[in-house]
Amino acid sequence: MDEKGRFLIPVRIRSEISGNILVITRAVDKCLWIFTPDEWRRISESIMGSSSMFKSKTRLLQRRIIAPAQECEIDKSGRITIPPSLRESAGLASKKEAVILGVQRYMELWDVETYNEYLEESEKEFLEAAEDLGDLLQFGKD
Question: What's the predicted TM-score (pTM) here?
């Protein structure tokens, strides 16, 4: 992350993106989610249409995920400027390292230290999930 809050999207990821606009919003964990406009439209319409605005959980999701979302342009150098409010919510500081994860339909942007803490804290839960995944995929069964 440079001093202006810009982050370089790796070429490998950039080559998979059609167009030069991405939608960035707060994630459930202390990171940011990054979507293509089409994927964001699908997600936001699903959240907005999933329940009544009179339900508190629906309003909470709308306020925490949809409301902070912002369209951001990828510049000619392959960088995207992360808006200050979103950087703050994910603990991303200028002139610090960040991690970008490509998770098939979206990306996650993490502060390196926060991501490493998350990995440590979730290790036991990950091992349990891996056990379940092994059963689901039926590894080792003939």
Answer: 0.87
Span of 80-89, 99-108, 118-127, 130-139 with lowest mean pLDDT: 130-139
The tens digit of pLDDT for each residue in 7-39 reads: 999 888 888 888 899 999 999 999 999 999 999
3.30.70.270, 3.40.50.410, 3.30.428.10, 3.40.1550.20: CATH of 6-111? 3.40.1550.20
Helix (H, G, I), strand (E, B) or coil at 125: helix
Give residue limits of the domains in the chain.
6-111
